[in-house]
């Protein structure tokens, strides 16, 4: 079969690789119907996170079960399912606590030795604990299938950030970052009842989506100018809840600067670059809480799935460019050059 591999920074290739097979009784083989490129994949593409030459890549996909191991109880060939970006056994204590990303037997798609989502098929370990079944009729609805793909990462990650930030009904929320995760953070803030949502972003195509998703205000400035703008919009107080969806020192510094005293920051931007942007003394003196990290999206899917199926929330606009497998290298270039927000892959 064909799959995307990375050989060096800016060197993405689609190559023939071994077909996935059931190796353990708890495995399934999932034929990929939709996958995508994540903003975090760009750190490998740019050489900012290490990868081995020829390593598979991609961690967001959904598809049809082709084969199921003898111990798989919840899935059979022909089932449609979405795969969260981490596989997990579903039986350990962290999984029981809704922290599947800390499962001792878990792992990330695209890690060394594992399949990547940007290919024709993947072997799914611990299928019963990992996959979430979808209505099979959704496979014939292109828009819905695209919206459901967001459950594999960005929609749940946005929700994790909003929950970590303590978004409540009637609160004022600020979102740092206009990528797909930040935009899904806007969706999550609206879903949780925020009264005012301030989206920080400089790209109009993206902030237009933010407004569709529920943003009431847009701040295009960066750094201290962004802090001043949010403070002005909030009568000098700042936001009750701040979502940090970038992961740089500057973005975290901005998040701290726009949080009101007693507020909270939910951070889900994958950290990269130097430093942290955190002034712990300032946060201590102002009673600012910090919660977040790698999102256990498997825990959020059961709650989010009905809203996606019923159209209450529709994350599909974050996918603004669609390619086939041959177009994946070009998709990386488009996202790296910010001419695409998030690239949808139709193998």
Unreliable stretches covering 5 or more consecutive residues: none
Gross geometry: globular
CATH class descriptor name of the largest domain: Alpha Beta
pLDDT averaged residue by residue: 96
Order of helices and strands: EEEHEEEEHEEHEHHEHEHEHEHEHEHEHE
Please compute the radius of gyration using only Cα atoms.
Answer: 20 Å
Into how many domains do the coordinates divide?
2
- Report strand %: 15-25%
Tally of extended strands? 18
CATH-defined fold name of the largest domain: Quinone Oxidoreductase, Chain A, domain 1
In DSSP terms, counting alpha (H) and pi (I) runs of 4 or more, how many helices? 12
Structural class: alpha/beta
Distance between the termini: 11 Å
CATH architecture of the largest domain: Alpha-Beta Complex
The share of residues in helices is 25-40%
User: Could you give a short account of the major beta sheet?
Assistant: 7 strands, mixed
Q: What name goes with the CATH superfamily of the largest domain?
A: Medium-chain alcohol dehydrogenases, catalytic domain
Could you describe the 3D structure shown?
This protein folds into two domains: 2-153 and 296-345, Quinone Oxidoreductase, Chain A, domain 1 (Alpha-Beta Complex), CATH 3.90.180.10; 157-292, Rossmann fold, CATH 3.40.50.720. It is globular, with a radius of gyration of 20 Å. It has helices at 41-45, 93-96, 127-130, 142-149, 154-164, 180-191, 204-213, 223-233, 249-258, 280-285, 297-309, 328-336; strands at 2-8, 11-16, 28-36, 55-56, 61-68, 80-83, 86-87, 107-108, 121-124, 132-134, 172-176, 196-200, 217-219, 239-244, 259-267, 289-292, 321-323, 343-345. The strands form four sheets. Strands 3, 5, 6, 9, 10, 17 and 18 form a seven-stranded mixed beta sheet that branches. A six-stranded parallel beta sheet has the order 13-12-11-14-15-16, with helices on both faces. A three-stranded antiparallel beta sheet has the order 2-1-4, with helices on one face. Helix 5 packs across helix 6 (180-191), helix 5 packs across helix 11 and helix 6 (180-191) runs parallel beside helix 7. The longest helix is centred in the last third of the chain and has 13 residues, at 297-309. It is an alpha/beta fold and 347 residues long. It starts with a strand and ends with a strand.
